[in-house]
Amino acid sequence: MKITGKYWLLLVLTAFVWSCRNSKVEETQVADDQSSTTFYQTGAAEAMKVEAKNPEVQKAKIITLYEQPAPLTDRPEQILRRRGYTTSYNSKSKTPNWVAWHLTKAHTYGNNQRKNEVFFEDESIERNQRATDNDYYNSRYDRGHMCPAGDNKWDAQAMRESFLFTNICPQNHGLNKYEWNDLEIQCRDWAREYGAIDIVCGPIYKGTGDQKTIGRNKVWVPDAFFKVILCRQGKPKAIGFIYRNEGVKQTMDEALRTVDEIEALTGIDFFPALEDATETRIEAKADLTDW
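Given the sequence above, the corresponding C-alpha coordinates read:
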Protein backbone atom coordinates (compact mmCIF):
# COMPACT_ATOMS: atom_id res chain seq x y z
CA MET A 1 0.00 0.00 0.00
CA LYS A 2 1.27 3.41 -0.89
CA ILE A 3 1.68 5.72 2.13
CA THR A 4 0.70 9.29 1.38
CA GLY A 5 1.98 12.42 3.09
CA LYS A 6 -1.14 12.59 5.26
CA TYR A 7 -0.50 9.08 6.61
CA TRP A 8 3.14 9.95 7.44
CA LEU A 9 1.99 13.00 9.35
CA LEU A 10 -0.55 10.96 11.31
CA LEU A 11 2.04 8.34 12.28
CA VAL A 12 4.51 10.99 13.48
CA LEU A 13 1.86 12.72 15.60
CA THR A 14 0.75 9.40 17.18
CA ALA A 15 4.35 8.48 18.05
CA PHE A 16 4.90 11.91 19.61
CA VAL A 17 1.79 11.63 21.84
CA TRP A 18 2.80 8.16 23.11
CA SER A 19 6.31 9.39 23.81
CA CYS A 20 5.05 12.29 25.94
CA ARG A 21 2.65 10.03 27.81
CA ASN A 22 5.34 7.48 28.71
CA SER A 23 7.67 10.24 29.78
CA LYS A 24 5.01 11.61 32.11
CA VAL A 25 4.41 8.18 33.65
CA GLU A 26 8.16 7.72 34.28
CA GLU A 27 8.39 11.17 35.84
CA THR A 28 5.47 10.37 38.13
CA GLN A 29 7.01 7.04 39.18
CA VAL A 30 10.33 8.71 39.96
CA ALA A 31 8.57 11.40 41.95
CA ASP A 32 6.59 8.76 43.84
CA ASP A 33 9.76 6.79 44.59
CA GLN A 34 11.52 9.91 45.85
CA SER A 35 8.48 10.80 47.94
CA SER A 36 8.43 7.32 49.48
CA THR A 37 12.13 7.45 50.27
CA THR A 38 11.77 10.85 51.89
CA PHE A 39 8.76 9.63 53.86
CA TYR A 40 10.58 6.59 55.25
CA GLN A 41 13.69 8.62 56.06
CA THR A 42 11.60 11.21 57.85
CA GLY A 43 9.67 8.50 59.66
CA ALA A 44 12.84 6.80 60.87
CA ALA A 45 14.24 10.10 62.07
CA GLU A 46 11.02 10.91 63.92
CA ALA A 47 10.99 7.44 65.46
CA MET A 48 14.54 7.97 66.70
CA LYS A 49 13.52 11.30 68.23
CA VAL A 50 10.59 9.67 70.02
CA GLU A 51 12.81 6.83 71.23
CA ALA A 52 15.41 9.27 72.53
CA LYS A 53 12.75 11.13 74.53
CA ASN A 54 11.19 7.95 75.93
CA PRO A 55 13.09 6.74 79.02
CA GLU A 56 11.21 3.42 79.06
CA VAL A 57 12.42 2.60 75.55
CA GLN A 58 15.97 3.54 76.49
CA LYS A 59 15.78 1.59 79.76
CA ALA A 60 14.69 -1.53 77.91
CA LYS A 61 17.79 -1.35 75.71
CA ILE A 62 20.22 -1.19 78.66
CA ILE A 63 21.56 -4.47 80.02
CA THR A 64 22.14 -3.76 83.69
CA LEU A 65 25.12 -5.44 85.33
CA TYR A 66 23.77 -5.65 88.88
CA GLU A 67 26.99 -7.24 90.10
CA GLN A 68 29.25 -4.36 88.99
CA PRO A 69 30.26 -1.81 91.65
CA ALA A 70 30.31 1.94 91.09
CA PRO A 71 33.40 3.44 89.37
CA LEU A 72 36.44 4.07 91.59
CA THR A 73 38.15 7.46 91.66
CA ASP A 74 40.60 7.05 94.55
CA ARG A 75 42.85 4.38 92.95
CA PRO A 76 43.91 3.11 89.52
CA GLU A 77 41.12 1.25 87.77
CA GLN A 78 40.99 -0.47 84.39
CA ILE A 79 37.76 -2.34 83.67
CA LEU A 80 38.31 -5.64 81.83
CA ARG A 81 35.31 -7.67 80.66
CA ARG A 82 35.87 -11.39 80.33
CA ARG A 83 33.63 -14.25 79.31
CA GLY A 84 32.76 -15.22 82.88
CA TYR A 85 33.46 -12.10 84.93
CA THR A 86 34.39 -8.40 85.00
CA THR A 87 37.49 -7.19 86.81
CA SER A 88 38.63 -3.77 87.99
CA TYR A 89 42.40 -3.94 87.64
CA ASN A 90 44.80 -1.86 89.73
CA SER A 91 48.12 -1.25 87.96
CA LYS A 92 49.74 -0.10 91.21
CA SER A 93 48.97 -3.19 93.30
CA LYS A 94 49.19 -5.55 90.26
CA THR A 95 45.98 -7.15 91.58
CA PRO A 96 42.27 -6.53 90.96
CA ASN A 97 40.41 -3.94 93.03
CA TRP A 98 37.43 -6.24 92.63
CA VAL A 99 36.12 -9.04 90.43
CA ALA A 100 32.38 -9.38 89.79
CA TRP A 101 30.22 -11.99 88.08
CA HIS A 102 26.64 -13.19 87.69
CA LEU A 103 26.53 -16.83 88.72
CA THR A 104 23.59 -18.86 87.40
CA LYS A 105 22.59 -22.40 88.23
CA ALA A 106 23.64 -23.49 84.73
CA HIS A 107 27.09 -21.97 85.25
CA THR A 108 27.76 -24.25 88.21
CA TYR A 109 27.94 -27.25 85.87
CA GLY A 110 30.16 -28.10 82.90
CA ASN A 111 32.85 -30.32 81.44
CA ASN A 112 35.70 -27.81 81.28
CA GLN A 113 38.16 -28.75 84.00
CA ARG A 114 40.90 -26.59 85.57
CA LYS A 115 43.49 -29.38 85.38
CA ASN A 116 43.98 -28.50 81.70
CA GLU A 117 44.76 -24.83 82.38
CA VAL A 118 47.81 -22.80 83.40
CA PHE A 119 48.11 -19.30 84.85
CA PHE A 120 49.14 -16.67 82.33
CA GLU A 121 49.82 -12.96 81.96
CA ASP A 122 47.11 -10.57 80.80
CA GLU A 123 48.52 -8.95 77.66
CA SER A 124 45.86 -6.23 77.72
CA ILE A 125 47.92 -4.73 80.57
CA GLU A 126 51.22 -2.92 79.96
CA ARG A 127 54.16 -5.26 80.61
CA ASN A 128 55.54 -3.23 83.53
CA GLN A 129 52.09 -2.99 85.15
CA ARG A 130 51.13 -6.67 85.33
CA ALA A 131 51.93 -9.69 87.46
CA THR A 132 53.74 -12.72 86.09
CA ASP A 133 54.05 -16.35 87.09
CA ASN A 134 57.61 -15.69 88.27
CA ASP A 135 56.31 -13.21 90.86
CA TYR A 136 54.57 -16.08 92.63
CA TYR A 137 57.42 -18.59 92.33
CA ASN A 138 58.81 -19.44 95.81
CA SER A 139 56.67 -16.65 97.30
CA ARG A 140 54.90 -19.01 99.73
CA TYR A 141 51.59 -17.67 98.44
CA ASP A 142 49.07 -19.42 96.23
CA ARG A 143 47.83 -17.91 92.99
CA GLY A 144 44.41 -17.28 94.47
CA HIS A 145 41.44 -17.02 92.11
CA MET A 146 38.95 -14.26 92.78
CA CYS A 147 36.35 -15.56 90.30
CA PRO A 148 36.96 -19.29 90.88
CA ALA A 149 37.67 -21.85 88.19
CA GLY A 150 34.79 -23.86 89.64
CA ASP A 151 32.34 -21.14 88.52
CA ASN A 152 33.61 -21.32 84.94
CA LYS A 153 33.33 -25.00 84.00
CA TRP A 154 30.40 -24.09 81.76
CA ASP A 155 32.60 -22.62 79.00
CA ALA A 156 36.13 -23.28 77.72
CA GLN A 157 36.96 -19.61 77.20
CA ALA A 158 35.55 -18.66 80.60
CA MET A 159 37.65 -21.37 82.26
CA ARG A 160 40.81 -20.28 80.45
CA GLU A 161 40.30 -16.58 81.29
CA SER A 162 39.82 -17.37 84.98
CA PHE A 163 43.57 -18.12 85.02
CA LEU A 164 44.57 -14.62 83.92
CA PHE A 165 46.66 -12.86 86.55
CA THR A 166 44.19 -9.95 86.48
CA ASN A 167 41.85 -12.37 88.32
CA ILE A 168 44.50 -13.51 90.81
CA CYS A 169 45.85 -12.37 94.19
CA PRO A 170 48.58 -13.73 96.48
CA GLN A 171 46.63 -15.91 98.92
CA ASN A 172 47.64 -17.95 101.93
CA HIS A 173 47.58 -21.64 101.02
CA GLY A 174 45.49 -22.66 104.04
CA LEU A 175 42.85 -20.01 103.34
CA ASN A 176 42.78 -20.87 99.64
CA LYS A 177 42.41 -24.58 100.30
CA TYR A 178 39.85 -24.45 103.11
CA GLU A 179 37.74 -21.43 104.15
CA TRP A 180 37.86 -19.54 100.85
CA ASN A 181 37.13 -22.73 98.94
CA ASP A 182 34.25 -23.52 101.31
CA LEU A 183 32.72 -20.11 100.60
CA GLU A 184 33.05 -20.67 96.85
CA ILE A 185 31.24 -24.00 97.18
CA GLN A 186 28.53 -22.34 99.30
CA CYS A 187 28.00 -19.69 96.60
CA ARG A 188 27.48 -22.41 93.99
CA ASP A 189 24.94 -24.06 96.28
CA TRP A 190 23.08 -20.74 96.60
CA ALA A 191 23.14 -20.25 92.82
CA ARG A 192 21.55 -23.68 92.37
CA GLU A 193 18.97 -23.01 95.08
CA TYR A 194 17.93 -19.52 93.91
CA GLY A 195 18.66 -19.84 90.19
CA ALA A 196 21.24 -17.02 90.14
CA ILE A 197 23.24 -14.73 92.43
CA ASP A 198 25.55 -11.75 91.92
CA ILE A 199 29.03 -11.88 93.47
CA VAL A 200 31.84 -9.38 94.02
CA CYS A 201 35.10 -10.20 95.76
CA GLY A 202 38.59 -8.81 96.07
CA PRO A 203 41.56 -7.95 98.29
CA ILE A 204 41.72 -5.68 101.33
CA TYR A 205 44.87 -3.71 102.17
CA LYS A 206 45.30 -2.00 105.53
CA GLY A 207 47.50 0.69 103.99
CA THR A 208 49.62 1.17 107.09
CA GLY A 209 53.41 0.99 107.00
CA ASP A 210 55.35 -0.66 104.19
CA GLN A 211 53.18 -2.71 101.84
CA LYS A 212 54.20 -6.36 101.71
CA THR A 213 54.88 -7.47 98.12
CA ILE A 214 56.11 -10.50 96.21
CA GLY A 215 58.23 -10.87 93.09
CA ARG A 216 60.13 -8.58 90.82
CA ASN A 217 56.94 -6.69 89.89
CA LYS A 218 56.12 -6.07 93.57
CA VAL A 219 52.66 -7.60 93.59
CA TRP A 220 50.80 -6.48 96.71
CA VAL A 221 49.94 -9.13 99.30
CA PRO A 222 46.41 -8.58 100.69
CA ASP A 223 45.81 -8.45 104.42
CA ALA A 224 42.35 -9.94 103.90
CA PHE A 225 39.71 -10.74 101.28
CA PHE A 226 36.07 -9.68 100.99
CA LYS A 227 33.13 -11.27 99.22
CA VAL A 228 29.62 -9.82 98.91
CA ILE A 229 26.67 -11.74 97.48
CA LEU A 230 23.34 -10.44 96.20
CA CYS A 231 20.24 -12.55 95.58
CA ARG A 232 17.52 -10.82 93.53
CA GLN A 233 15.12 -13.77 93.43
CA GLY A 234 11.95 -13.17 95.44
CA LYS A 235 12.61 -10.57 98.14
CA PRO A 236 16.17 -9.29 97.49
CA LYS A 237 18.83 -9.94 100.12
CA ALA A 238 22.58 -9.54 100.48
CA ILE A 239 25.37 -10.85 102.65
CA GLY A 240 29.10 -10.27 103.06
CA PHE A 241 32.25 -11.95 104.38
CA ILE A 242 35.80 -10.95 105.28
CA TYR A 243 38.56 -13.54 105.69
CA ARG A 244 42.03 -12.66 106.93
CA ASN A 245 44.80 -13.74 104.57
CA GLU A 246 46.12 -16.21 107.09
CA GLY A 247 46.29 -19.96 107.49
CA VAL A 248 44.21 -20.06 110.67
CA LYS A 249 40.74 -21.50 111.10
CA GLN A 250 38.05 -18.90 110.45
CA THR A 251 34.41 -19.89 110.66
CA MET A 252 31.78 -18.48 108.31
CA ASP A 253 30.00 -16.91 111.29
CA GLU A 254 33.20 -15.13 112.32
CA ALA A 255 33.74 -13.86 108.77
CA LEU A 256 30.15 -12.62 108.40
CA ARG A 257 29.73 -8.89 107.67
CA THR A 258 27.09 -6.57 106.30
CA VAL A 259 27.67 -5.08 102.86
CA ASP A 260 27.68 -1.65 104.51
CA GLU A 261 30.59 -2.69 106.73
CA ILE A 262 32.59 -3.94 103.76
CA GLU A 263 31.83 -0.77 101.78
CA ALA A 264 33.17 1.33 104.67
CA LEU A 265 36.32 -0.78 104.87
CA THR A 266 37.06 -0.98 101.13
CA GLY A 267 35.69 2.33 99.84
CA ILE A 268 33.75 0.44 97.14
CA ASP A 269 30.05 1.06 96.45
CA PHE A 270 28.44 -2.33 95.79
CA PHE A 271 25.23 -3.00 93.85
CA PRO A 272 24.55 0.63 92.81
CA ALA A 273 22.10 -0.53 90.11
CA LEU A 274 19.58 -1.50 92.77
CA GLU A 275 16.69 0.79 93.64
CA ASP A 276 17.92 3.02 96.49
CA ALA A 277 15.46 1.87 99.15
CA THR A 278 16.21 -1.80 98.41
CA GLU A 279 19.96 -1.19 98.46
CA THR A 280 19.75 0.61 101.80
CA ARG A 281 17.66 -2.14 103.36
CA ILE A 282 19.60 -5.22 102.28
CA GLU A 283 23.11 -3.80 102.73
CA ALA A 284 22.51 -3.06 106.42
CA LYS A 285 21.80 -6.69 107.36
CA ALA A 286 23.77 -9.93 107.32
CA ASP A 287 22.04 -13.06 108.58
CA LEU A 288 23.07 -16.55 107.49
CA THR A 289 19.68 -17.93 108.57
CA ASP A 290 18.07 -15.89 105.75
CA TRP A 291 20.06 -17.97 103.30
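The radius of gyration is 32 Å. Try to locate this feature in the C-alpha coordinate string yourself.
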